[in-house]
Amino acid sequence: MQYVDLFLAAVPTANKAAYSKHAEAMAVVFKDHGALSVVDVWGDDIPEGETNSFHTAVMRKDDETIASGWVVWPDKATRDKGMESMMSDARMQEEDMPFDGKRLIFGGFEKIIDL
Questions:
Q1: Domain annotation covers residue 72
Q2: Is residue 57 in a domain?
Q3: In total, how many domains does the chain have?
Q4: Phi (first) and psi of residue 104, to 5 degrees
Q5: How far apart are the first and last CA of the chain?
Q6: What is residue 37's predicted lDDT score, i.e. its pLDDT?
């Protein structure tokens, strides 16, 4: 069963081009370590919630935009092996994140529906 990693980040809006370049470089690394596909998206129509929202989840500042994405793996075992091997990939050390990584939210999910 396919496995999906999701992430959510607050990125300085001025860093959109740098973020896109970073995301593209990271997508290549993910694919080289077994991912089937990588998607990155830039927030466009994200309402603020009354109790909680994407904005509060990542403590978005006024000069930031919400970015999100997902990585699809063939299965959890491939994901676990791929993530482990990525940690020793020199390209991971070379990339500077154009956002505050301490506010990055991420996690792995088992796919249950795919229509």
A1: no
A2: no
A3: 1
A4: -70, 130
A5: 14
A6: 98
Indicate the average pLDDT of the chain: 95
Residue 95 has pLDDT above 80, yes or no: no
CATH code assigned at 8: 3.30.70.100
Query: Please, which pLDDT band fits residue 71 given cuts at 50, 70 and 90?
Result: very high
55 part of a folded domain: no
Q: Compute the average pLDDT of residues 53-81.
A: 97
In this predicted structure, the answer to whether residue 114 has a pLDDT above a threshold of 90 is no
Show the domain range for 42: 3-49+62-67+79-110
- Asked if residue 68 lies in contact with residue 43, where contact means CB atoms within 8 angstroms, the answer is yes
Q: Name the pLDDT band for 92 (thresholds 50, 70, 90).
A: confident
| CB burial readout 28-60, b (16+ within 10 A) else e | ebbeebbbeebebeebeeeeeeeeeebbeebeb
